[in-house]
Amino acid sequence: MALQPGLPSDDNVRHVNGVGMLLEGSAPGPGLYGPEAVFNGDGWSSCLMPVCRMRQAMDDAKQLMDELEETRGSLSEQAKAKGKLETNIKQLEKEKEMLKYQLETLTNEMSKMSDRQIDKKKIIHLSSLLHDLQQEMEEARLTVDQKVEVIQKKDFQIEQLESSLAEYSLIVQDLKEKLKDLEDQLAEALIAGEGSFQDMDGTFSHTPRRSISLCEELRLLQHGTVQEPNEETEVVEITSDPSIPKQSWLKRRTHAAGALSFCLLLPLGVVTAMVPIYYNNPGLSCVEILWSAAYHLIQPYFSVHHIGLPPI
Q: Where is coiled-coil annotated (predicted)?
């Protein structure tokens, strides 16, 4: 299609939203922009105002499109942020549930803390009691060991005393047998004396001598004071007589048996007196037991009586 002279070509016209716009640097024709579009030396001055308006509208539209794109971008970003926020909200809700559970757990533990404190105090108290009981048991064990040791010592002493008593019993039995033998020997000696008489000094003589009758003894008792010098002279005469032995063998044996019996019976009596004291007072020493035995033996034979103050 041939263009009319004075009209701009299609290359110089841009269609924007169905509206033809004259490009910059092209000359519009008179038929396109109306009869008022007249070209002069400065160009198409009559159509500059609508073009500027259209350009302004295009700029506004472009700006609106940019704003729309920005709005769409911001909306997509907001959607993404919203998704993130929803995810964060869900995560926070989960954390909230976890914190709630932890809070409940802590609350339960705090409620149980009082019971734990009470139990802890009870445990401490019971531990102290257990320690005290262990100390008391240790002291009791030491006391029992000491008592067992004392009992063992006493048992050993009792065994020694029993063995001593058994020995003393055997000695006493032997002494009784010896005493019986001595009595038999004395009886045999008296029988074998064949008329031996007792002298005034208590000795026996095998030679026949003058005996003292009962009447003479009574007479001597009645006149004891008168006959004392005579008796002394007679005793002197008898002792000075070489025919009379000083002491018979029977008397010597009797004295020896008596001394032996005394030496053996005296320790036996002392031990017999010591045994009850030892059983009644097991903590006494040997010296204290001997003094106690001596006191118990001598006590029946002496007494102290307080009469009063001496005269002034």
A: 54-192
